[in-house]
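Ticket reopened. Same input as before:
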Amino acid sequence: MSLYTAETRRLTKRRFTRFFLIGVVLLLGAIAAGMFISNQKNTPAVVAEAQAKADREYQQAVVQAEAERKTCESQPGSDCTQMWQPTREDFQAEWYMPPTFNFRKNFGDMVTTLAAILAMAAFVIGASFVGAEWSSGGMMNLLLWRPQRLKVLNTKLAALLAVLTAVTVALSALWTGLFVLIANLRGTLDGMTSGAWQSYLIMELRGLVIVLAAGALGFGLASIGRHTAVAMGVAIGVVVVLQAGLGTVLAMAQVKYIEMYLAPTWIAAWMNKSVELVDYNAPCIGANCEQPTMTLTWQMAGVGLVAALVLVVGTAMWTLRKRDIT
Amino acid sequence: MSAVLEIQGLQKTYRSRKGVRKALDGFDMVVEAGQVHGFLGPNGSGKTTTLRTLLGLIRPNGGRMAILGREVPQALPEVAGSVGAIVESPQFFGNFSARDTLSLLADAGGVQRRRVDEVLELVGLRDRAGDRVKTYSLGMKQRLAVASALLKNPRLLILDEPANGLDPGGIREMRTLMRNLAESGMTVVLSSHILGEIQLICDSVTIIAAGRRVAAGGVAEVLARHASSSVRVRLESASDLTASAGALRDVGAQVVVDADHLMVSGLAQPSAITRTLAARGVYVSELSPVSVDLESVFLELTGTAPVEGEHRQVDQTVMAPTGPAQGGWGQ
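Engineering reply: fixed in the latest deploy. New output:
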């Protein structure tokens, strides 16, 4: 327990951790402020004005369509039966309203945004937490004090995950509260039944898992390479080479369901419970000529996440156990 | 007296694309309780590898080690609380203060926080304890490293080059500290290149070269064992040096002729020198035994004395005299 306390203190005392989290909070604040500024509450006056504008547009469209039909009919041999005839549904009032924050419709994207930003921060903080210890010699000092390699590394990882959990839960609660406020002031909370709240809570829990996984992956990679830069290098390599490069190569090769090979698709499947992929390279099928589709579920994404974690963290443990510390 | 540290037949081999290098080749070492023990060896001889292996950072390929009577590395977690150590240059996280660094170690090792201030006082860092370590000089970092090793109030203190970077006053303070610690019952193993210091403060020494022990025992004992019993002889007239050297060689002495004196060894009694020379009408103006020091014994045993016109390579010792021999890369 004393080692765990020391490692938690070490992590929270680090200036890098503090500055990075302050940067994350500022970024989240900027996003929330942007959402607040770019949305407006639809008051009865705003709705009435939008309705009036929709009506005017509809009337103008009817007049214009009538004029065009007459012109068409005046030309012998023209088929005017297929001409567009405006309907009320084509001019809905909400299309003429300023954007408004509909909590039920829009908060899901905000949860994904929060999870993505926190996951990135968790990866870097996790990598730096153990990487800086290795490169500064602190890890060797610690192992002289506690010559139990796996226990030390596991305790460090546990301390990291505990701090990340606390930060993510606190920021998720703050984030939810902030957008409830934004919805109240600049949008609506209509449709937020207990089921909808529960659904968002579960989505935030899935976001927490992504954050913890990213932290553990950064920690594991930096531990394998014994330097923060190794984890960062792998991350940049994966993004540049595997994601951008692989995407291009697969597109050129006209591979089926290209997105299936890209990490963001799996993250989206995890966060949104499922993602439907369309094979645009295949010939269409059925009476409506539809492209074949494939659905990635959060369970499939979860298996991939666990596999990546076992591989990276397991290798980190194995290398620490086997390699000399010089 | 019981042994606090025992090493028998320790072996460590490094393999790489360049070949195999035996860093430790059956190394033995014994340190008795309450002693200040010097651990000496030239660069690359295996000192730091020995200490790292002893402390569980490196896995040996063979041999046996025991600390405080317990086999290590198996029992290292149990004995770690009684062993304070610094290995090689002091390394700390630069953005933490000395107090933070030590209090984190204290937490990790279950040591009471008040001990932090005690050791900071002991090593002379009390007034700079709140400063970030990256602002410290090498000597201050060295003091912090010693403080971290003392934090546990260990029974066995292992210090690798503790005087590195210290100013003369700091070296003297460190010497006093080591002696005081030994007097309080702590056993201190001191690895250093400052042989004068080792001779001053150590009770016993182990000398390592090319991964093997080449000498061990009490300092006086090692000096006596390897003293060459040379005698410096000056004559009334320097013009008699060459002829006198010949006369002494005739009676079985080994003689080196220098510009103004002879270095004579190999005779049981110095009186044989005066008798031999007087018989030839040559009179001695000075006849003095040459005292041996630890540095000369070290250089002799490890074969690392500088030779004019030659550039000795790191792995080139008395055990591995030339080229890619045993103990060097390329085996």
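Chain B has eleven helices and 14 strands. The first strand of chain B starts at residue 3 and ends at 16. Please confirm and we'll close it.
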